[in-house]
């Protein structure tokens, strides 16, 4: 198995066998169509195939996403069920995962209730967080978010219509591989751990390469939470960085051992590197017609962000959606797709929004604001992040 060519009993004594055991260009071309999990198996066949597999893996330096919606009564969350199958077919090695689910059917108590109702099905993992960690590589950093509602684009097709799930079960997993020239770092702070040193270690301050921050706070409505969030946002608001996110209901798969029970905090991802570009617009609370929403999202075009290797994010208030648009559903997601037909859109409905009108390209920033100017309610933050 460690020879220069594949064994004859595998490839056969034929012209095809000779090509597949000697011509790296052909082997490498074929392997571009093979899912990542199978590439690792193929790499053990021979040295040629191993080297080709490694080169193919290095070209898969971007992102993909898996999403799901529907009902899974008495079963695990619909996203976990979908990921069990779909992870077999992805073509990258996940290094970082941003997972968002609605709160229905994704908690220890719910899982225990479902397990009790299905005692005969031992294959159903009782703890959804443990199953999520088991599904992804052990080296993958997982940032998990639980919110009231979810925005997803169906898996695998960026030009599929995005869907706003204000109710019902839905979720997505945004998976990033290692990317040359781009650094992704997860972070978590509570009132015990937030400090200038901790922020610097996370790449949030004193980092000239920082371009984008996805920031999600939880329970900051409690006493002291506002001061905590301002302390975190103030240095970011004064930097040439795109900050987007919002307030969520819960977080998981993050080391929260430092937190007191019921404590507030914030989690997120930092994206650093010269290849990254970003832009965001704020759909104000008084915008209540599809035409006005589309006009606001249209302003993102001014950023001239490339559509290839770009992800769209939508962070909306639970008070918007059909409540704002005279019971019309999917208004803002539809407006995004109309303007950006080839960019997938992911996000949530939460309890507060973080962001503003801003473009980050090289050393240019569209607008500046303070910590208070980044925090909103009854709005939607729509953004683009380009990964080179």
TrEMBL record:
Annotated FIST C-domain domain residues: 225-357
GO biological process assignments: positive regulation of proteasomal ubiquitin-dependent protein catabolic process; protein polyubiquitination; regulation of skeletal muscle fiber development
InterPro entries named among the record's database cross-references: F-box-like_dom_sf, F-box_dom, FIST_C
Signal peptide: none
Gene3D superfamilies, alphabetized: 1.20.1280.50
Top-level lineage group: Eukaryota
Pfam families: F-box, FIST_C
PANTHER family: F-BOX ONLY PROTEIN 22 (PTHR14939:SF5)
Protein name in UniProt: FIST C-domain domain-containing protein
Organism: Culter alburnus (Topmouth culter)
